[in-house]
Design a protein that fits this description.
This protein is α/β, with parallel strands linked by helices and about 325 residues long. Helices cover about 50% and strands about 15% of the residues. The strands form three sheets. The chain has a four-stranded parallel beta sheet, with helices on both faces. Strands 4-5-3-6 form a four-stranded antiparallel beta sheet. A two-stranded antiparallel ribbon has the order 7-8.
Length: about 325
């Protein structure tokens, strides 16, 4: 039996989606099926059908991907807590979009409001990307300090920032294409093992998302947030947050700010987290954790089999 007093739940964000996610869950558990149907009704589109059947380009649309990731993880949580009501973590965090799932796991964000909010977030980010096109690139093998140097040099060519500090040796940069092209070359010259442009046209977690931030802040103003049942380690501050005013402030800044994931995980570990459970599609976050601290236990819950294995522990 896991010691939930030292267990953290992690929730993945955009990029971890996969056609078919949630289908077996909906077929096996009525509470999961009801969760997907509720989301379909709230959004006014057949979200679950795009999740279960695809096609890839439909699920890969930012405006669909974000609610899909949120709903899938919440469905897994609902099944888990229906079977194991006491399986509540001591810490929660989510990567970018996944932070909204963490808020729901902590009881801070109502599911129905969460679906509408992440739908609005996805739509706003998609529109911002069309208005101010940009890109992203992953730099492998560079420290965060070395990446700061790359950014400083490339910024003369346009807007460019660190979007994700994921783990030692993996940083994602984001901004205008002109600056990204320069940064990729500088990174290679400065010792990066690889500098890989990502297949995206939206410069997430950069100043180019300012229009999306404004639309999101307007939507968030109509949402009721509740005191969290456990600390939420937020992307913007990279530390445990329980104060609602601070949580809301960090949410407002998130779209245009860096995801400080490496620091967030280190803060959790310093605060006593020993077991990390990634609840959602794929195993990106436990993979990053392996690069941060391989001594910690890592578990993935993403489908019926892995969920049943977790319940049986």
């Amino acid at each position: 039996m896991l010691d939930f007093s030292t267990t953290a739940f992690l929730f993945p964000g955009q990029g971890s989606q996969a056609v078919g996610m949630g289908k077996d869950l909906a077929e096996a558990y009525p509470i999961a099926k009801a969760t997907f149907e509720e989301a379909d009704d709230i959004m006014g589109v057949a979200l679950s059908n795009m999740m279960f059947e695809g096609p890839d380009d439909a699920l890969g649309d930012t405006a669909i991907t974000q609610p899909a990731m949120y709903v899938h993880s919440v469905a897994l949580l609902r099944v888990l807590w229906d079977v194991m009501p006491d399986a509540k973590p001591a810490f929660v965090a989510g990567h970018s979009l996944g932070e909204f799932t963490a808020l729901t796991a902590a009881g801070t964000l109502d599911f129905a409001e969460g679906v509408a909010l992440v739908q609005k977030r996805g739509e706003a980010m998609k529109l911002a990307g069309e208005q101010q096109p940009g890109g992203m690139a992953a730099l492998l093998g560079l420290s965060i300090e070395a990446t700061d140097t790359v950014i400083a040099e490339a910024s003369a060519s346009g807007v460019i920032v660190i979007a994700n500090d994921n783990c030692p040796g993996q940083v994602v940069i984001s901004g205008e294409q002109s600056a990204l092209d320069v940064a990729v070359e500088i990174a290679k010259d400065n010792g990066a093992k690889r500098a890989i442009p990502l297949d995206v046209s939206v410069a997430t977690h950069s100043p180019l998302m300012q229009p999306a931030k404004e639309a999101f802040v307007e939507a968030l103003a109509n949402i009721t947030l509740f005191a969290p049942a456990m600390p939420i380690y937020q992307n913007v501050s990279a530390q445990a947050e329980t104060d609602l005013a601070k949580i809301k402030e960090n949410l407002e800044l998130q779209i245009v700010s860096s995801v400080r994931w490496r620091e967030s995980m280190n803060a959790m570990i310093e605060d006593g987290a020993e077991t990390f459970v990634e609840v959602g599609s794929k195993s990106v976050l436990t993979g990053l954790l392996r690069r941060i601290d391989r001594s910690k236990d890592r578990i993935n819950v993403e489908d019926v089999q892995s969920l049943q294995d977790f319940i049986a522990k």
